[in-house]
Design brief:
- By secondary structure, the chain is of the alpha/beta class.
- It has a single domain, classed as Alpha/Beta hydrolase fold, catalytic domain (Rossmann fold).
- Helix content is about 45%, strand content about 15%.
- Helix 5 links the parallel strand 3 and strand 4.
- Helix 1 crosses helix 6 and helix 3 packs across helix 4.
- The two termini are about 30 Å apart.
């Protein structure tokens, strides 16, 4: 929750007029290395979404996360639609384990009917770009895949591009 990358994303979105709410899974709160069981992670996502809506009931609500957090958010949405959530943003979807390319971690995405934004890096060891392109191509929901190229760009330039992409996507998706 307080990782410099997450803080930079939240600060950057705030500068673009997008409120954020950070939370963490119980295993992170305890400092454990092993993730919580999926059911507990899904409950955590549901509680965070409910809290965000309660705190800001008039704002358009989007959910998502970085890597594992995004995947748990999408799984929760696939199991039972998250109330009031208009879209899911993935800051790097963890499609597979490093050097073990497969798409089974994305099987649940076909159950999601709200818009999704995938922000994927060209050097992401957890998401072979050819595989992620194939996954998003076959989804029925409105899906946007933005590939973030690191070569020849600074970290700051990549971050600005990514945040501008999120802001544009939220603006276009805000009203169904």
């Amino acid at each position: 929750m307080n990782h410099p990358y997450i803080v930079a994303v939240c600060d950057g979105l705030a500068a673009r007029g997008i409120a954020t709410m950070r939370y963490q899974f119980p295993y992170m709160e305890k400092g454990a290395k092993r993730p919580d069981p999926p059911k507990l992670c899904h409950q955590t996502v549901q509680a965070a979404v409910a809290a965000a809506h309660e705190l800001m009931p008039t704002l358009a609500l989007f959910a998502g996360g970085k890597s594992f957090g995004g995947r748990m958010t999408s799984q929760a949405q696939a199991i039972a639609p998250l109330p009031d959530v208009r879209g899911i943003c993935f800051f790097g979807f963890p499609l597979h384990a490093p050097e073990k390319p497969t798409t089974t971690r994305a099987d649940h995405l076909s159950s999601i009917k709200i818009p999704m934004l995938f922000l994927q890096g060209t050097r992401d060891a957890l998401a072979d770009l050819a595989l992620i392109r194939g996954v998003v191509k076959h989804l029925s929901a409105r899906v946007t895949l933005n590939v973030l190229v690191r070569s020849g760009t600074t970290d700051g330039e990549v971050m600005r591009t990514m945040l501008d992409d999120v802001a544009a996507w939220v603006a276009a998706t805000r009203f169904p």
